[in-house]
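Incident review: delayed structure delivery

Summary: a single-chain prediction request sat in the queue longer than the usual turnaround. Root cause was a stuck worker, restarted by the on-call engineer. No data loss occurred. The affected request and its eventual output are reproduced below so the record is complete for anyone auditing the incident later.

Affected input:
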Amino acid sequence: QVQLVESGGGLVQAGDSLRLSCAASGFTFNNYTMAWFRQAPGKQRSLVTAISQSGADTRYASSVKGRFTISRDNAKNTVYLQMNSLKPENTAVYYCAAKAGWLAGNYDYWGQGTQVTVVS
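Output delivered after worker restart:
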């Protein structure tokens, strides 16, 4: 069965760094665009960043550009989110998601989420 399992979340102080991992199984990982979304209480889920199948293309929400970096290791079926200079407003549940291609509209698979809490 398809699984996306996030890990690496936690409670950190403003200015700290955190690295999230998403381990994928049950589908052809290197044929999928991978992404990180986040959702804070009372707010809509929004795209943080996405990476194409080969890793050649990435996109970022303006609010995280320059601080967050998405990467993937297709040999390990894992996608990462390196988060630097964390701010309290980055507090949210972070979700890993997969869709068939860079231009595909729908994300087909979702992880359970991992909580990131940033305190000042």
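Verification: The radius of gyration is 13 Å.
Action items: add queue-age alerting; document worker restart procedure.
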